[in-house]
Please model this.
Amino acid sequence: MPEFITRIAALLQVDPQVVLRRLLTIAVIWGLAWVADWVVRLLARRIERAVDDGDDNTMTMQEKQGRTVAQLLRSVGRLLIIALAMLMTLNQFINIGPILAGAGILGLAVSFGAQSLVKDVINGFFMLVENSISVGDTVDIAGKTGTVERVTLRVVRLRDVDGTLHVIPNGQITTVSNQTRGWSRAVVDVTVAYESDLDRALGVFREEASRFAADPVWSKLLDGTPEVLGVQQLAERGVTIRTLLRTHPGKQWEVARGFRFRILDRLGRERIAIAALPSVSALGGGVSRTTEAAAVAVVPGSEP
Model:
């Protein structure tokens, strides 16, 4: 019999054989807990591999859902395993029945004082069940826009375009605006000068939109034929022409940038004037108005 077990038995005033048996039981408990945690992590990796289509450039809906489920499985699974192992370890020394009964009453009392925490967990549960949000989605929640990095039962971690990480409690989420679910749409507004031939300008837009859709690089990102709606607005300095491009989820900003570049280049080659914004510069205490480069309207708040 090891000497340290004899000392522990003397300290607790119990039979050394009982101490040895309980220590072995505790070792088995935590060994099984480690195995269970390994199985949970293995299942999470298997889920991620099962939904991975091998294309790193595009994240499909199945990949987003798989990553979300894998993250939840790791966090909740580990928490449950550790809690169960601790209770079984404690049960080797004392009867945990009365403790569990008292914990239930204490939990009820705490729930009244921690209503926001309970609300967070309930909201998080229903968000996951209803699949309102997944890892990799670009969403607008609680006044913040960004890409979802992590979803738990209590919080959502959101990374915006500036790199700022927003941790939002689920209880504060009343509306989820998902910009990358199913399909997306790029809305491109270009304002041409009033002096331009409008019929000719619309013809150029439609022709360039058709070329854009036929381009092998951009066609992979599109989910339909581009639509040139026509005159969207009679602005202060010109006529706004709107083009809609339906894209695969999350590709609307890349497509919008590509089409703006191409249409500006084409309008320049066709010598179709684009509305210009005035710039103000101070000259000798006075004000002189000049013109800047062509103004292209961008739909506000569209890119995360």
